[in-house]
Structure formats: C-alpha cells, structure tokens
Amino acid sequence: MNLNRRLFTTLAASALAASLTAPAMAADLAAIESAGTVKIGMLVDFPPFGITDMSGNPDGYDADVAKALAESMGVTAQIVPVTGPNRIPYLLSGQVDVLVASLGITAERAEKVDFSNPYAGISIAVYGDSGLDVADKAGLSGQSISVARASTQDTGVTAVAPEGTDIMRFDDDATAVQALMSGQVKLIGASNVVMSQIAAATGDRFNKKFDLSSQVQGVAVAPGSDALLAKINDFVAEAKSDGTLDAIHEKWLGEPLPEFVKNPK
Amino acid sequence: MYNFNFQPVFENLDLLGYGALLTIRMSLIAMVLGLIVSMLGAVAKTSGIRPLRWLVDVYVEVIRNTPFLIQIFFIFFGLPAVGISMSPDTAAIVALVINVGAYGTEIIRAGIESIPGGQIEAGKALGLSPVQIFRYVVVKPALRNIYPSLTSQFIYLMLTSSVVSVISANDLASAGADLNARTFASFEIYLVLTVMYFLLALGFSTLFAAIRRNFFSYPASR
C-alpha cells in the first residue's frame, strides 16, 4: 500500500516532469497553409488590446492584428482565448500556432518562445496639464503627482522623483485619474493605454511630459518555427510601412503606432 | 504551508509607528471637532426653530444613509468642481468630522431629550441663569447619559479612518499598504496592523474611561 503509493507518486512526478521538459511543438508553416486556418491565441481580458465584444467574440487591438496577420498569410484566423498565465503553455503544447497576446518581449520569455519584431507597446510616462512646463524628472520637484499604488508607474515615478515631489498614491488607475481630472493633482504617472482613455474624455487638456519606461510586445511562436516566424516578421514590417498598424493603433489607442514600437532600439 | 516572514515588518516598524501617530492625530482632531458639530446639531434639533431643525434633519439623514467611502470621494474629488480644493489629509478630517457629526447629533439629541422637564424647572427655581441651566442641568447630565454610545461612536470613527488612503491621505492603513507594495509580506503586515488598530482602540477606550471617572462620577438618582 505504502509502496504502491510511493510508486504512484514517483510515476506521476516523472510524468509531470516529462511533460514540463517535453520539447516544444514547433508550428509548421506548410501544415498551417494546407489546413487553411491558423490558430491564434489572444487575451480577452486586457482592454483595449484584447476584449470580448457585445456578441461574445474576441475583439481589440490584438484581434485586429491577428486577423490582418491571417489575411496576409492567406488563411483564416481561428482565435483561441488564452489567459496571462497559460498563454505560453498553450503555445508550447501546440494548442495554438501563434500568440498575438500582448506578450511583452523580455529576455526571460525569449528563452522559451521566439518573438517577432514588436507589433505593439505600452509606455509609462508622466502626463499633466498642458499649460504646465515639466520637461524632465527635475521638474517634478514641488509638484503633486498621482499614481496607482504599487503599479509600474508608482515604481517608475518613485525612482526618479527628486526631493520635494508630492507623490499621491491611490488604490487604482481610475482613482489616480480622478485626482488629475478633478484638479487635485497637476501630474499623473500612467500608461499610454490609460492616457488614451483620458484624452478621449478631455481632448487636449493634458499632454505628455516625459517618458519613464516602455515595453514592446511581440507575436510569439514556439521555438523552431522559423519559416512561420519569417512570414510573421514580413507581415509586421509590411503592416508598419503600409499604415495597417497605425490605423489599428489609432482605432484602439487614439494615436498612430508610437516611435518606440516602430523603430525599437 | 505559508512561510511567515516578519523581517520586513520589524525592519519598518518606524514607518508603521509614524502611520499610527497620524491615525491618532487625525482621530483626535476629528473627535474634538466632531463633538462640537454634534453639540451644535443637537442644540439646533432640540431648539424650537423649525427651518434650523429641518436643515439639521437633512444633514443627519443624508450622512447616515450614505456610505462613508462615497462621502470622502465626494469631498475630495467632487468639491474641487465648485472651487473647494483640500489636501488629502484635510479632506479626510473634514469627511470624518461631517460623518461623526451626524451620528453624534442624534446621540446627543437623545441625551438632551432624556432630561426630564422637571429638572430644568428645578434649575429655574434655584435661580440659575439660562446658560447655567443649559450647561449644568441639561448638557452635562445628557452627556453622562449617552457617554457610552458617544465614545463607541468615536472609536468607530478611529477604525473608519482606515479607509482614508483611498484619497491618498496618510495614516496607519496607508503606511501598511505602502509597505506591502514594497515587500509583498501582506499577511504579516495586516496581522501587525490588526494588532496595532486593536491597541489603538483599547487606548482610546482607556482614555474615555478616565475622562468618565473625572467628569461624570457624581452620584445620580437614576
């Protein structure tokens, strides 16, 4: 009994280990083309990149890019909703061929998946009243700036703020934005995603002061899918030059594709 | 099994201690100002002047029937629209005073109404002036009657003040939240905060009991 249980545990553990270390399933471009569909994983809970529309279909920036990608490959897109934690396992186990899932390009992830050139990006910056002159971090001194507590922008602002900056930490982006809109603060640390929503409501009342950090996102494929990746990179390059990505970015984020995504360092 | 690590908490006890001081200061200011608002409200409510009574009625009903969170949001984010802009810490105190004032008004009104008319007439018969009657015959016994309700409302005010970090005001809870954002030792931090709030409440209870012994420990017929 005891031995059996131990045996079972050992077997289960080794099976699990095997499944975790199993070689990733590379996607075959020819197979995708002959099937006529490409399975694309995307987030549906990350507005405005991935959302679910009124009729329950995936929509958003990533969905538009996914459809454009499939079209350029001459196949139809089959969009598979994935979540933040399971998107890379979905890709590596072959349940999707491609991820257009707002996956930020990091060195850590690049060890597991192959990234295309960036097709989107999120930047964190200091924004504020258009009339206010704050050119760099030194200009923060004597100003009040709102951030969402414990967010990337909180870390970013706290790191650069000089002595005499009044950093006001709120529970979330919505409240930090409220502080800006009601005039309780003159500046805010926020992402371009949040700012595009503010701009939609307030026009040119606020503008960008200076950048804090940025993160680009790439289309991901399983390692070894070189033909597919080359095809995707062709698509990204073409979509950047012919204005497809500008139009999609304009539609969802209210401005053309930012420079740090177009010409990454 | 969760691994407790109190290291980050103990390393930053000064931060939490400072937060506790801010909470004590904010609560004390709000209690004193709140008591004044409550007295004025109760006097207005028991006075014969109708418009004044209605005004206080509206104030008490609006505040007692809306959540504190909404009130504090309204004061901090809403009032700038009409040109009244306060710092987060001031807005927090104003919100607490307005809130506790409404509850206190009702509590003290009940105390004043518990004074039998004969007692006031007795004061008049003794030749006391109206101010003396109000002070010694009405207010003091009234406060004595409702002292437990009023002080528990004040302790509740101190505990309620833990939500003021939503408008980025600084207090014990926001000190804990900042520490949590840096160290991610949530469970340990909130455990220590619980103990600290409990000790604060206990401290206030002791203070109130001492005040009671000093001011209200005369014999009464009832």
TrEMBL record, chain A:
Superkingdom of origin: Bacteria
InterPro entries with a match to the protein in the record: Solute-binding_3/MltF_N, TAT_signal
Domain Solute-binding protein family 3/N-terminal per the UniProt entry, residue ranges: 37-256
Keywords on record: Signal
Keyword Signal among UniProt keywords: yes
SUPFAM superfamilies for this protein: Periplasmic binding protein-like II
Pfam families in the record: SBP_bac_3
Signal peptide: 1-26
Name of the protein this chain belongs to: ABC transporter substrate-binding protein
Gene source species: Puniceibacterium antarcticum
UniProtKB/TrEMBL annotation, chain B:
Subcellular location field: Cell inner membrane; Cell membrane
Keywords, comma-separated and alphabetical: Amino-acid transport, Cell membrane, Membrane, Transmembrane, Transmembrane helix, Transport
SUPFAM superfamilies on file: MetI-like (SSF161098)
Chief location: membrane
GO MF entry, a single one: transmembrane transporter activity
Top-level taxon of the source organism: Bacteria
Membrane topology: Multi-pass membrane protein
ABC transmembrane type-1 domain location: 20-208
Chain ranges passing through the membrane: 20-44, 65-84, 150-169, 189-211
GO BP field: amino acid transport
GO cellular-component term (any): ATP-binding cassette (ABC) transporter complex
Physiological role: Part of the ABC transporter complex GltIJKL involved in glutamate and aspartate uptake. Probably responsible for the translocation of the substrate across the membrane.
Family of the protein in this entry: Belongs to the binding-protein-dependent transport system permease family. HisMQ subfamily.
Subunit structure: The complex is composed of two ATP-binding proteins (GltL), two transmembrane proteins (GltJ and GltK) and a solute-binding protein (GltI).
Name of the featured protein: Glutamate/aspartate import permease protein GltK
